[in-house]
Structure formats: structure tokens, C-alpha cells
Amino acid sequence: MSTDGWKNFGRYGADGDPGNVHGSIGLARALEDALERMIIEGGIKSPVSTRRGLGARMRYLRTTKGGAQALADAGVTATPATQRAWAHGKQTPRPATQEAIDTAYWNLRAANVLNNSGAFKQHLNRGGRGSKIEIHPINQAPVDENRRRDNLRVRSFQVRYVWDDAVDALTDGDGGRLEEIWDDIISDLDSDYGAYQYVSHVGLGA
Fold it and tell me: For position 150, what pLDDT does the model report?
């Protein structure tokens, strides 16, 4: 595929696959996936159906700001006395209530992680080591055969110094800033820079 084909995305059919997107969109999706992993991996591991898992969730919900509202939003209407009994393992709620408690816990944890972007930035920056990024080139199947590039491959490398700005741009919904950050990231690819402005997938090792 010629250089002009990359600059004028879709001229030779690359937009025939809806999975081919600008790298900034792939980056935003990768950040959202990394954030979801951070929420889940840092959460309570024991199932809510176990005494330990239930107690841990109830203690979090009863001691963390917004916990009472999260329980109410999930449909949990038990009295404070009953909730204390659940937290200390003296009573066990019905399975449907356990599911509602689990929903309340994860909703509150997600909200708290999302509201603390500093922790997510630290997670990505890794004390200055940065995070590994994996860039998958576009699917060239719909591209005119004589315009395809045979040398495209998955590129993987460490990225530093952009993550604070990237998280802020994601939080603010600033697509233009994410495009600038993507340009900064792929500039490390030198002559292959133009071939990765559009991608099929971006992965983050974070």
C-alpha cells in the first residue's frame, strides 16, 4: 500500500473493515480495558457467596463513602442492623441479595477508581518504566491487492512519559489530544510511522 493510501485512509478500501480504526481510538479502548483490569484485579477475590467474600464486601460498603447509596441503588433495603450481621457473618442474605451486594460493591469500587486518576496514572507509569504497548496493524483484506503492504506486523515496545496526558485526555473525552498522543507514540517507529496511524487493535501490558 502506498504512503498516500495511509494518509488518505479508506481510498483503497481499508475502511471496508469496521475494526480498522484510528490509533487514538484503539488507544482509548486499550486504556479502558486496562482500567477495567485494574478495578477487577485489585478487588475482593472471594465470591460473595462465601462468608469471607460477603463480609469483605459489606465492610467495604459500610465504611466507604457512597456505600449506603450503592447498596440502595442495587436494591438492597435491609436495615443497618441486618447489614452489620451480614458484615460479621452472623446472618446470610438470600442469593438474590448476595448478587445485589456484589453489584453494589463493584459499582462503588469502579466509581472510586475512576475518580482517582492518579492511581491509574501510577499504574501505567510504573515508577518511570512505563507500560508495554502492542500495536496490531489494520486488516488489509478489503484493501486493493496492489495497494497492500506485505511487511506489516504486530509491533510491541515500551512507552513512557505519555500516560498522565493520556489518562487526562480519556477522562476529558478529548479525542484531539488522544490523536496527538498517538502520534507521539508511533513516532518511535520511524519510517513505519504512517503505517500505524490506523490499527485493528491496541493492547496494553498494564
Answer: 61
